């Protein structure tokens, strides 16, 4: 079965958008893997620690020892690593994430700049070439244009 694929377009702050999607997925009981390059993962790691003063998002890198990974609902992994087990993949990258087809859903976070849009077009083509039917949601059309 192919995963559901969603593109969240025009994210003014992709890192903050990742935090919002993670919180939404966790409230639904979903486990989450986040795939990006090392620099972006460091930003996301810090943001997950400080995104909301009233909550904690348990997360770790997928490279930590197995006992910790097994009990952590959000795993961060680099594009060059194997995908960890999770239900939802949140991806920020220019090429299809390793192991993307093994997830129930894939969420592509697309920035509001021309290079992000060009990368998203390539990703869209990649997913459709694999038989997926991606859906898109333009975040700039939300109330006040805010990422929601």
From TrEMBL:
Record's protein name: DNA polymerase III chi subunit
SUPFAM superfamilies from the UniProt entry: DNA polymerase III chi subunit (SSF102400)
GO molecular function per UniProt: DNA binding; DNA-directed DNA polymerase activity
Biological process (GO), any one: DNA replication
Pfam families cross-referenced by the UniProt entry: DNA_pol3_chi
């Amino acid at each position: 079965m192919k995963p559901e694929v969603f593109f969240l377009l025009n994210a003014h702050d992709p890192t903050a958008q990742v935090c919002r999607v993670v919180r939404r997925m966790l409230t639904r009981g979903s486990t989450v893997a986040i795939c990006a390059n090392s620099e972006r993962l460091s930003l996301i790691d810090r943001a997950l620690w400080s995104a909301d003063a009233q909550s904690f998002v348990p997360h770790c890198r997928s490279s930590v020892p197995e006992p910790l990974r097994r009990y952590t609902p959000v795993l961060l992994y680099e594009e060059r690593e194997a995908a960890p087990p999770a239900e939802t993949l949140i991806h920020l990258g220019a090429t299809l994430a390793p192991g993307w087809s093994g997830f129930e859903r894939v969420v592509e976070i697309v920035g509001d700049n021309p290079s992000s849009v060009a990368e998203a077009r390539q990703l869209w083509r990649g997913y459709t070439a694999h038989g997926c039917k991606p859906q898109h949601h333009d975040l700039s059309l939300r109330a006040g244009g805010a990422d929601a």
